[in-house]
Write a structure and sequence with these properties.
The chain has 21 helices and 3 strands. The protein is mainly α. The two termini are 51 Å apart.
């Protein structure tokens, strides 16, 4: 473990850059200070790239600030990833959705790993857009580690991990890091295979899901370009030229007229969705506006449905569990409430009858007095600290009830003698059993569902570091201007031409 720290200290002494803001990268992994090199893919004669987190990035006020921001970003992302979707705080919950924006149902452990990976990925991608390539690479490699905690079926079934690999290789190119060519090659191969599975050999699967495939073609521009550059450095010049020409042809098909783009933006639409929809409609302004409007309506509908779903989950938590440990059935609950029965009585009837609609209805209509003891969720006798006196018990026994039953009823009703006597008369002097504490309203969250509250510092980090870089448009990652790609295509085609002379 000291080898990493000693190496960073030597680099720091020679470069006059604080060791705390240096990151060492080898074979596509960030080298951690507290792990042995042999456990981090580093071998004898391995090449190591050194990243200074603030190098060339004017936005950072200081080098130390940027190192601290990276640590806070990881902590905030981890805290958000641990949140449950039935949390009471929508502002601090990350939802994972498919290509249509519909939420994915995943096991908790996998959901947390995927949430962490995707947040770090978005943060890294935002740094890429700001051309902060050093910081972007560190964040993207951290995301890579989180993605690898997920099942391989998930990584290969969707395009998220493939796009991440594409972004990492793009960072290598922009940082002019030729030493990472082996890692770049393996990532591009994986990326191409994943695109083929997700989109189809000729993007036919994508066209079937979304109606067109033009937006994802921007990713292919970058893929062909990077493959061409890789071929160039492998001395495969003919292959390099073929791939660069392919990238250029695809790029030209995606060019958007600037005046049309501004025309759509002037109507109040975001520049990202304007560019994407103009590409999807072949530059037709009217059709692009229609497409944007339809997408917004579809997204709004999905959001409303998910909001309703979360509200029902929270209601189920508040209603408690049935005698056999099930959650109260919200659909049955709403049906009975719709008939005019009190909400507390309906909840109590369903808890006692294990969500049996007919039995619950019979109980509500014919024996409502049996529900009286369970209709006030605020009356938790376990939390009451009052004292049951002999005189209180005597007042209840005077009307004909047994002393032990009188004491238990007084405890349930927090010493309220009038309410105790009324309840005992209603149920014939026999107290019905109460649900166990874990089945009572508001306590039905399972042990593995315990909500982890964010600290104020974590909330501040989320607001400052995570939220600003998570785009509202789920297709923001497809909005590549392709300006830099065009420059690289021209640069490497010129270099190939010079070699042919």
């Amino acid at each position: 473990m000291r080898v990493v720290l000693i190496s960073k200290k030597r680099i720091s002494d020679q470069s006059k850059i604080p060791a705390e803001i240096l990151k060492l990268i080898s074979c596509g992994h960030v080298i951690e200070d507290d792990r042995q090199l042999s456990h981090q893919w580093v071998r004898h004669n391995s090449q190591v790239m050194v990243i200074c987190l603030s190098e060339g990035e004017m936005e950072a006020r200081s080098q130390e600030e940027q190192a601290s921001r990276l640590a806070r970003t990881k902590d905030a992302a981890q805290a958000l990833a641990n949140r449950k979707e039935d949390s009471d705080h929508d502002n601090y919950f990350i939802q994972i959705a498919d290509q249509d924006g519909k939420p994915l149902e995943l096991p908790d452990g996998e959901r947390r790993a995927l949430s962490m990976a995707m947040m770090l990925n978005e943060k890294g991608r935002a740094c890429l857009k700001r051309k902060q390539y050093g910081e972007a690479l560190v964040l993207l490699l951290e995301a890579d580690g989180a993605f690898k905690l997920c099942r391989s079926e998930i990584l290969t079934a969707v395009d998220n991990y493939a796009v991440l690999c594409l972004d990492i290789v793009w960072c290598y190119l922009c940082l002019e890091n030729v030493s990472e060519l082996p890692d770049a090659e393996s990532r591009l191969t994986m990326c191409q295979d994943c695109f083929r599975r997700s989109y189809g050999d000729n993007l036919e699967r994508l066209a079937g899901i979304k109606g067109d495939s033009s937006r994802e073609l921007a990713l292919y521009v970058r893929l062909y370009l990077l493959q061409g550059i890789l071929a160039f450095y492998h001395q495969q010049h003919n292959l390099a030229l073929t791939l660069l020409n392919k990238a250029e042809t695809t790029l030209n098909s995606l060019q958007v007229d600037e005046s049309k783009l501004m025309q759509v933006v002037s109507m109040g639409f975001d520049i990202s969705e304007a560019r994407l929809c103009l590409r999807a409609t072949g530059g037709n302004v009217s059709n692009a506006i229609t497409k944007i409007t339809e997408r917004r309506e579809r997204k709004k509908e999905i959001i409303e449905k998910e909001k309703e779903k979360r509200q029902k989950k929270r209601l189920a938590l508040k209603l408690g569990k049935t005698a056999d440990g099930q959650k109260v059935n919200i659909e049955v609950y709403e049906s009975l409430v719709g008939m005019g029965f009190p909400t507390s009585a309906v909840a109590a009837s369903l808890r006692q009858t294990n969500n049996d609609l007919h039995r619950a209805l019979e109980l509500l209509q014919e024996q409502p007095e049996l529900l009286q003891l369970a209709t006030d969720p605020d009356e938790d006798d376990d939390d009451w600290k009052g004292v049951i006196t002999d005189s209180m018990i005597a007042m209840v026994t005077e009307v004909g009830f047994q002393p032990l039953i009188a004491r238990e009823a007084l405890q349930r009703y927090r010493g309220n003698i009038e309410k105790t006597v009324q309840a005992l008369f209603a149920c014939g002097g026999i107290l019905p059993p109460r649900p166990s504490k874990e089945n009572r309203p508001g306590t039905s969250r399972d042990n593995d569902e315990v909500e982890i509250e964010l600290t104020e510092e974590q909330k501040k980090a989320v607001e400052e570091l995570i939220k600003p870089d998570i785009p509202e448009n789920e297709e923001d990652y497809l909005d590549l201007t392709l300006d830099d790609e065009a420059k690289f295509i021209e640069q490497y085609k010129t270099m190939l031409a010079s070699l042919r002379k």
